[in-house]
Amino acid sequence: MTTINKISKLALWAMVMSLAVNKVNAQTTTVDSTLLNRISALEQQVADQKSGENHFMVAGLTTFGYVRNKTTFIPPGGIAQSQKTNSFGDADHYELSPMLMWNHGNKFLIEFEPSFNGNTLGVNWANISYFAAPGLIIHAGYFVVPFGIYNKRLAAGWIDKLAVDPNGIGLPGSDFGIGFSGGFPLGDMKWSYDVSLTNGLQLLSDGELQNAGIVDNNKGKMVSGRFSLLPLSNSCLEIGVSGLYSNAGDAGSRFTSADVTMYSADINFVKTFQPFLVNIKGQYNRINVTRQTYIATTDSSAYSFNNKTSAAFGQISVRPIGVDNKLLKNFELAYRYSNYTTPQSSTWGQNLYEHDFGLDYWITWRTVLKFTYAHSHSLSTASVPAGGVAGITNVNSVYLQFSIQL
Amino acid sequence: MKRFSIKGNTLMLVVILSGLASILIMSCAENAKIAAKSGAQLWAENCQRCHNTPSPASFSHEQWQIIGLHMQTRAQLTDKEKDKIIAFLSQ
Prior knowledge:
Structural class of chain B: mainly alpha
Largest interface: A-B, 56 and 48 residues
Number of strands of chain A: 21
CATH superfamily of the largest domain in chain A: Porin
Number of strands of chain B: 0
Shape of chain A: elongated
Distance between the termini of chain A: 85 Å
Strand content of chain B: under 5%
Number of helices of chain B: 5
Order of helices and strands of chain B: HHHHH
Helix content of chain B: 55-70%
Number of helices of chain A: 2
CATH architecture of the largest domain in chain A: Beta Barrel
Oligomer: heterodimer
Helix content of chain A: 10-25%
Radius of gyration of chain A: 31 Å
Largest sheet of chain B: none
Low-confidence stretches of chain B: none
Strand order of the largest sheet of chain A: 1-3-4-5-6-7-8-11-12-13-14-17-18-19-20-21
Number of domains of chain A: 2
CATH class of the largest domain in chain A: Mainly Beta
Shape of chain B: elongated
Order of helices and strands of chain A: HEEEEEEHEEEEEEEEEEEEEEE
Distance between the termini of chain B: 66 Å
């Protein structure tokens, strides 16, 4: 009897244990799947937000295509001379620019964009940004100088609606220095600032300005800044004003006293009027260089001129994004007018205007095939005795361009 | 006759703009309507001011975070705008 009781108790205990183990196993299975998913999500969050974690990515862009030109030069009282050229991407219309970005923690971003452009390998920017506080980013290194809206935001091939850049908008380019920028809400509106202190521009021997960013040629520095206001609550309109001041003469040269002042106003309007997305952009630049004496290359005589340059463009593009036809909604029509007036009586004086007509097809949001027809007319106002060339130059160009952001 | 002074006018411009900036910074605040905007709405409003609106599927969450910082330096997005847009694109 005792033995039977023992065996019964042992069997009962085994059954209870067996049930308990099964129950635990069932709970473990249920808990495991939800808990592990949660742990995985938390680990991802921690990995993304962990201070000091380095993240790295490569983006960038490339643009290539075909261009066909017909240039007609008409000398004063002479016979028109024409020249035709055609080529695949050249120095102005080919670009491969990988952009390397390192995100160090949540406060630092390092950006480096080398660029193969035609026959040269250059650098568009190489700088570090420190996100110091809400509305305050401090950047240092080699960066696009804040001036106007085109160079910093609209010039990339996969953004630009047309295959060519507007004339005379390239200055001041990129430069070495430090800068501060940020954006703030203002009730229904928004405003932003972007200012910098950099080495500055260089005045060349004929009075033209060399893009910033090569060699610091004097003790003076360049102050530049852009302030913008977005007055509408849906941010569809942006109005910007820019100013720049720089010593430009080489130290020890006859241009020591040369100063440059630049002003700019820009506008950016993007809004959908069903079924069309309407995109309007414009910029006006004014460049003043203090009066200097220059030496003619023809006979080494001295000459002077009022060194003031203006450049402006206005463009509109329309895309039927609201239509049902998938093919049609990817097309975009664009038109740009640009004007570029350089100093009269210099060796490079001209009054130039250009009309650009474009038809784009957006393969994806960042991949575009562009067809652009451009016509420019330039009337020389150059000083012939100083070495300039008088006459009228007309250029008709056709571009077929592909651009992609990587 | 007094000569037009570029340097003087530029300094004056800098002083005026700095004053204006100070006033703006002191009064910076967004109203309730702006604060309630979703990441999707901010994405639609801000990105297309310069380029087409990006597809959320184009990049990973980690990459969007880097791109968000990059775009903040380019387009001077406010911090809240950047955070909401990246949260939307990372979904």
